[in-house]
């Protein structure tokens, strides 16, 4: 069995998903194989290059600066914890990242995913290039689409770039030619919605052509929900952002567990939210000490 822990919109709280994954493993006895994160990491190595929205939030919440504080340069206690945990986090880009920083790292990499932190535990998945997780003869193929959609196709870093569209369409074409469907799609934005006018057309087009089992996304600020995508096959899941509520608790639906088991005739997928609001240790002012 392959087991994923899924998050979205961590906004600088890079250490928190690792701590929550550790707590899950300790309390359930079930190993996690990979942490998956659906964009808006808050990957800013330099405060001077943060966007206005992130700076505004950082003025009230130091956690927004978590990448700069804890992941640009290695800190021995964090390094020791991450080494013991031995888990990686696979992310797609959101719209609140230092895209120049990520562009430089991406251009240096020939792999589908590239590390961005001092511990080599946080990896960003390139748009349109699949990542295959393998364990004990089982495999799970993950496709990512980072950034957000823009119907004007502007070149700003937060929007899906032309080179990413080309990579994505080549991958889709190959899948259609070989009659192959990846297992999971992770994106930051939602599929384009003709009624609301929001979302990425690129995501909608991919979902119309490939039959994923699950699609996970964040970005919209809405609550956790699951519904059937327009293709009638894919389960589309909005992950709640990893934020604390007014009581200092984590909200329902901001950590999900996806279990995938190979069976005769195909793969069996089971998705369940982790009831984080019942965990008294992981509060706004105490989670770092857990």
Automatic annotation (TrEMBL):
List the Gene3D superfamilies. 3.60.21.10
Q: Where is the Calcineurin-like phosphoesterase domain?
A: 2-220
Instruction: Name the lineage.
Output: Bacteria, Pseudomonadati, Pseudomonadota, Betaproteobacteria, Neisseriales
Q: What is this protein called?
A: Calcineurin-like phosphoesterase domain-containing protein
Question: Could you tell me which InterPro entries the record lists for this protein?
Answer: Calcineurin-like_PHP, Metallo-depent_PP-like
Q: Which GO terms describe its molecular function?
A: hydrolase activity
